[in-house]
Sequence to fold (264 residues):
Amino acid sequence: MSQDSSTWLQTPDFSEWKDKFDRDGYLVVKDILSSEEIKEYQTIFEELSTGNQTTTHRHDLGSHTTRKVKEHENISQTMWPSLFIPNLTQGILHTRALEVARSVLGGDIGFDFDMLISKAPHTDTETPMHQDESYWPDMPDKRAVTIWVAMDNATVDNGCMWFIPGSHKLPLRPFKSAKEGHHVIICDGNKDELHAAPITAGSCTLHHGRTVHYTRGNSTDFKRRAFIMNFRPAEMVQWERDHDFDHGKSKGVQGDEHFAKGTP
Fold:
């Protein structure tokens, strides 16, 4: 993996990022990867999302609805790509993402987990409105940020992120499984509240663990791939592991009841 210091941005305005993130619960950061760097991660993405080595950690996040394209999952999710690529967490993407995460949440923030999510052309399956915190145990320190890096241009029509500004400051919304026995959940909300955040390949969005978010299905002829990393206080990462919660790392998505039984 390529390595890098903090030269990817010459003058990052971390204070402005923090202010926007605190206010809205989400943020857009442009060009966390250059056009050349993203090619390396697109290669990794294809290797892991189509190969056999990740079978135990891959599933269809859109299995609660009928497949639109027979040969493709509705929403392909591969948990823990860093489990399969040596030193991936020391590479440029994870290193830069950690720098950004600490800029908005503090210096005690550490890496928790990563995943790949892909919406193939014409799979046209939305990811329902939800809050990531609804999937997680009730931790003492709820600070968390997800960094969603576009591997392709993410547009309104192929499934860019949408957010409800300020929703992270309110209590967790009531939620339920989108369909009994399936992992995906949906929370209360009105789509009129959502704001779209289209971004170019190599750019990213950040959102707080309590920020309501959503993506439309991919109705285009092009792929919509995202490399996603989650960060939270290092003490809380250890708290999770001490409570036998590792986002499917050790048991895979079928062996971990958090995924297999559809429990939020």
